[in-house]
C-alpha cells in the first residue's frame, strides 16, 4: 500500500510527514498500520475547518484512484443533488451504540480495515474502495447514544462471493435514489448534525420533499484517507422513496 502526502501548514509553517510504502506480511503489521491511520485520524479531527473542494456536482478525486459505486446524476439543485445508484454491495458492521459519530466510525473502520487485510473466512485481501459510509440513527436526546452502522463498498470483483467475516454482514443495494449534500474539511461531531439539518431543510418544499424518509436516519460518506489534509470531500446522504417508473 503506497500513500503520498503533501506538506501541511500549521500557523503558516510547513510540516512534512513521511509515509513509507508498506507491505503487510502479517496481521500484526496491518493492525499497526491501522493504528497509525487512527492516530492521524484523531489528530486530524482537530483540524475541522473546511478547505473547500466540495460542492454540488463535484466528483470526488478519490474515485479517480480507487473504485467507488457507480451512480447516475438525476438532478442538481440549490445545495444538493439527486443520484440514482443502480446497484451496490457493502460489507457492514453490526450497529454501534455511541454518542459520537467520529468514535463509532473509528470503531467500525478498524473492523473493516482488518477485514480487507485478510481477517475474513477466505483469508483474502481486498482492494480499498470509497467511500466509507456511516448510517446514523439519531438518539432522542443530546446525552443518549445513537446507533451507527459503518460500511465498506465491496469491489465488483468480490461482489459475487464476498468473504464472510465474524461481526460483519453484506448489504446489497438494489436501485436507490439518494439526496446528497457535499462539504469539505474533516467530519466532526460538532458540525455533522448541521450538515444533515441543512440537507433536510433544502429538500423542504422541493419536488423531492414527499419522497424524504421521515425517520431522520441519514448517512455520512467519507472519501479521503486521514492522511489527506486538503481537497477533502464528504457527503450527507438521505434515501428517497422513489421508484424508477415515477421518474
Automatic annotation (TrEMBL):
<comment type="similarity">
    <text>Belongs to the HEBP family.</text>
</comment>
<dbReference type="InterPro" id="IPR011256">
    <property type="entry name" value="Reg_factor_effector_dom_sf"/>
</dbReference>
<protein>
    <recommendedName>
        <fullName>Heme-binding protein 2-like</fullName>
    </recommendedName>
</protein>
<dbReference type="Pfam" id="PF04832">
    <property type="entry name" value="SOUL"/>
</dbReference>
<dbReference type="InterPro" id="IPR006917">
    <property type="entry name" value="SOUL_heme-bd"/>
</dbReference>
Amino acid at each position: 500500500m503506497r500513500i503520498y502526502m503533501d506538506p501541511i501548514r500549521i500557523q503558516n509553517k510547513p510540516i512534512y510527514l513521511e509515509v513509507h510504502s508498506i507491505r503487510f506480511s502479517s496481521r500484526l503489521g496491518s493492525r499497526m498500520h491501522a493504528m497509525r491511520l487512527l492516530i492521524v485520524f484523531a489528530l486530524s479531527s482537530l483540524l475541522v475547518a473546511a478547505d473547500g473542494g466540495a460542492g454540488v456536482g463535484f466528483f470526488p478525486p478519490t474515485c479517480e484512484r480507487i473504485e467507488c459505486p457507480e451512480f447516475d446524476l438525476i438532478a442538481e439543485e440549490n445545495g444538493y443533488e439527486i443520484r440514482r445508484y443502480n446497484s451496490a454491495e457493502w460489507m457492514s458492521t453490526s450497529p454501534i451504540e455511541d454518542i459520537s459519530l467520529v468514535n463509532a466510525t473509528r470503531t467500525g473502520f478498524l473492523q473493516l480495515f482488518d477485514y480487507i487485510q485478510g481477517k475474513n473466512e477466505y483469508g483474502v485481501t481486498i482492494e480499498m474502495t470509497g467511500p466509507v459510509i456511516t448510517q446514523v440513527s439519531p438518539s432522542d436526546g443530546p446525552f443518549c447514544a445513537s446507533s451507527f452502522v459503518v460500511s465498506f463498498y465491496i469491489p465488483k470483483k468480490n461482489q459475487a462471493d464476498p468473504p464472510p467475516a465474524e461481526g460483519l454482514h453484506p448489504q446489497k443495494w438494489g436501485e436507490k435514489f439518494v439526496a446528497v449534500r457535499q462539504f469539505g474539511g474533516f467530519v466532526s461531531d460538532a458540525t455533522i448534525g448541521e450538515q444533515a439539518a441543512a440537507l433536510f431543510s433544502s429538500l423542504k418544499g422541493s419536488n423531492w420533499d414527499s419522497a424524504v424518509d421521515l425517520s431522520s436516519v441519514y448517512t455520512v460518506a467519507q472519501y479521503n484517507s486521514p492522511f489527506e489534509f486538503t481537497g477533502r470531500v464528504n457527503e450527507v446522504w438521505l434515501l428517497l422513496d422513489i421508484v424508477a417508473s415515477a421518474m
